[in-house]
Amino acid sequence: MKTVNGITETIYFTAENAVFYLTAGGLIGLKAFMPPVGKDDLAEDGESDNSPLWQDLGRVFLHRAFPYDMPDKFISVLDKDGKEYGMIKDISALPEEMAQIIRAELKRKYFCPVITKINTVSAKFGYTYWEADSDMGKLSFSMHDTYRNIAKVGGNRLILTDVDGNRYEIKDYLSLDRKSFRKLELYL
Fold first, then answer.
1. What is the pLDDT of residues 128-162, one digit of tens each?
2. d(CA 34, CA 184)
């Protein structure tokens, strides 16, 4: 659906126009009241009827627009190719059953153990090898180009990204024990 200026209008999914559900395989799906979604949305002949209707979009993918600052707000809903169907403004505005399904999917996608202690960090051939304790137990991971893969995301919060794209969080690096901080400060 396009506006007068040719800019696509964002659809906001609410309790009135969307039903998030679990598919038979346990993945998140969506039934939505929105303009028809065809196999090929590139056709712009102007003759098609764009009146909203209820349709089952099947499996959808969620992406947080602001994953650190507003994790439960502005959630983009995408198809398998990354095309956006619409957005959820605030998960808490949805019925609790749907909110639980969405939160579970986001927790799975944004799995991010919180590091509580850094036991060892060693460097070899441009890689660093980490062993740490977290809220999920002991961790072992490696990082390449370590300086670029430690991101400060507000205050004293850090996100570390390993060679496989997994993320680890340090909620407040200044509150780590002294030995852990000394191992980390080389890379800040």
1. 999 999 999 999 999 999 999 999 988 899 999 99
2. 49
Enumerate residue ranges in the chain where pLDDT < 50.
1-4, 41-43
Q: How far is it, in rounded angstroms, from Cα 182 to Cα 179?
A: 5
117-125 long-range contacts, CB within 8 A, separation 24+: 117/176, 117/177, 117/180, 118/176, 118/179, 118/180, 118/183, 118/184, 120/183, 121/183, 121/184, 121/186, 121/187
Quote the pTM value. 0.73
Q: DSSP E strands: which ranges in 1-114?
A: 18-22, 28-34, 53-59, 61-64, 73-78, 84-90
CA separation, residue 93 to residues 15, 56, 96, 111, 157 (Å) = 8, 21, 9, 23, 28
Question: What residues have CB less than 8 Å from 119, skipping those under 6 apart?
Answer: 131, 132, 133
Nearest to 121 by CA among 134, 130, 108: 130
* Residues shown for the chain: 188
Could you write out the DSSP letters of every residue in 141-153? EEEESGGGGEEE-
**Helical residues (DSSP H) of the chain, grouped into ranges:** 96-109, 178-185
